[in-house]
């Protein structure tokens, strides 16, 4: 059995015993694989096909990979073809054109994907303002009983997931259940009681609220999506760099963390249901996200960049009998863990979301995925990631400082524009390729042709180099000041993903 829990926007540092007890409990029973990377919204397709965006050719929300690039087999489709009953609840694939308006049914799912009825109100005026009227706000803590149907999307999704687990438990056949929670994505339409966990007088601002030194303008994310919300519009913040008032920054951070705690409660319901149904010892659980979210770091909000705070996501994998012992008869696998006496179990290696597909397939006994050839548009089933199964069986939890993770993000111009966050494919003029290991993050912004999907390796629009030991927040761009040619060549030699790195080496060597 496999339970995939996917959230929209990462948890930042909010995974804690006190305010995220259920995710923390899952983490305490599993290795937390740190430094996994995402490619923003198209990362859902990338993760579920184990192909990078340059292979899916999905850089916006307006194309379906099976038509646009190749008829690639997905993670749930692979399980379905091996006899698993596959189910989707909530936001798993990105809805709309990107998944053929069907969440890739019937290819990936045994039954049509479930979407909560109340999500249709998510972008409507549902937030009661100080004037007593309803608004389409960023900050939207609500009385759930006053919402349409007396519920919210993630509450509905959890109810449906619990219902499906009960049905599958009585059936006994192998199943793959993917549950996608919408929070902590904006707007922060969440139960108002969760705000009490984070008093405003206890909240702090981002430690690095300024735009990094010598950041190329093409790299900056002007957080247009946030600016569109009514409560943010009232602030009359200048475009593109104008800072949000500090008191409102604190409220954003408060609502974000409250949204994490709200999501955590839904995860707890799922884990408790596994225990109650006796499924824990036979169910692999994977918890992850599609991208991160800036909370004022680098003067940015939301996603849409190549910084760690946006590309780094949680990846927590529970494998009964491997990452944790099988539960004793009558005992719960997920009891409360006293973190003051329980050491955290962490594998400090760099991984990517494209690694999930080959890893879970291997660990559940499915046929192993072959590595994709350099050009794989005609290959239905292969992986551009790495099989991490051996990692979970290693007694030594050492670090490999040279493993690389890649991310990328498109831009319509060299300077921030209204569509810099979400450019349509036809408007993309620059592609920012970023690679990161435990010591460095290196990003180069290259000219891109949206008609041919070709990158011009000689057309460099900007670069970033951050030395993470001295600059973990990636605030001091030393691109051009450092002998980074030898550094990047070293990375190219020691990574299997030589095609991506070779492009970057070529750029900085000429």
TrEMBL record:
Compartments (UniProt record): Lysosome
GO molecular function ontology, one term from the record: metal ion binding
GO BP of this protein: carbohydrate derivative catabolic process
EC number: 3.1.6.13
PROSITE patterns: SULFATASE_2
Chain spans, region Disordered: 404-423
Pfam families per the UniProt record, alphabetical: Sulfatase
Cofactors: Ca(2+)
Gene3D superfamilies: Alkaline Phosphatase, subunit A
Oligomeric and partner information: Monomer. The 58-kDa mature form is composed of two chains resulting from proteolitic processing, the 42-kDa chain and the 14-kDa chain that remain stably associated and form the 58-kDa intermediate form which is enzymatically active.
Stated name of the protein: Iduronate 2-sulfatase
Organism: Xiphophorus couchianus (Monterrey platyfish)
